[in-house]
Amino acid sequence: MEFFQDNNEDPSSKSKSGGNINAYAAFWAKLTGVKLNKPCHASAKMLFSRTVIKELEEKTNIAWKSSEMAEMKRVQVWNIQLDLMWAAVTKHDKDAWQKQSDSTYDKDIKEWDAMLKAPVSKEPEQVQKCVLR
Predict the structure, then answer these.
(1) Sign (positive/negative) of CA torsion 104, 108, 114, 117?
(2) Which end of the chain is more exposed for a tag (fewer CB within 10 A), N or C?
(3) Do residues 50 and 83 share a domain?
C-alpha cells in the first residue's frame, strides 16, 4: 500500500471499462467491495418503462398469446410493446424523461467520481470492517 502513496510515478492502471483508475483506489475498492465501474446512462425510454411496468406486462402477455406473436421470444414482444407505448408519449413528456435521465446520470457520475477521489479512512473501526469482509 505504501508503494502507491510514496511512489512519484503515475499510479494508474487500466480498468476493464477502459478508463484510468488510481491503483490504490482499485485496491481499496477490492477490499471494501465497492464497484469502480463507471455508471451507465439509462435512456429516457428505459426510465419510462420502469414507471409503466404493470401495464407493459399486461400488454406483453396479451400480445404474446396472440397467434401472430406466439412464435416470438417474450423479450421481443416486450420490446415491441414498449416501443408502441413510447411512441404514444408526447414530445414534451419525452423531453422531460430525457432531462430526468441526464440529471440522474450526472448525479451518479458525481457520486462515482467523489467515491474514487475520497481519502482513505484512517479510523481503525472502518479499516477493520473492511478487512473482515
Answers:
(1) negative
(2) C
(3) yes
H helices present in the chain, as ranges: 2-6, 23-32, 44-51, 53-65, 74-87, 91-117, 124-131
pTM of the model: 0.62
Residue 112 lies in a domain: no
- 124: in domain: no
Q: Verify that 13 and 60 share a domain, yes or no.
A: no
User: How is residue 20 annotated by DSSP?
Assistant: E
**Residues 74, 97: one domain?**
yes
Residue 23 lies in domain: 1-38
**77 domain-assigned:** yes
* Sequential DSSP letters for 70-81: TTS-HHHHHHHH
Number of domains in the chain: 2
At 64, the amino acid letter reads: W
**Terminal Cα-to-Cα distance of the chain (whole angstroms):** 18
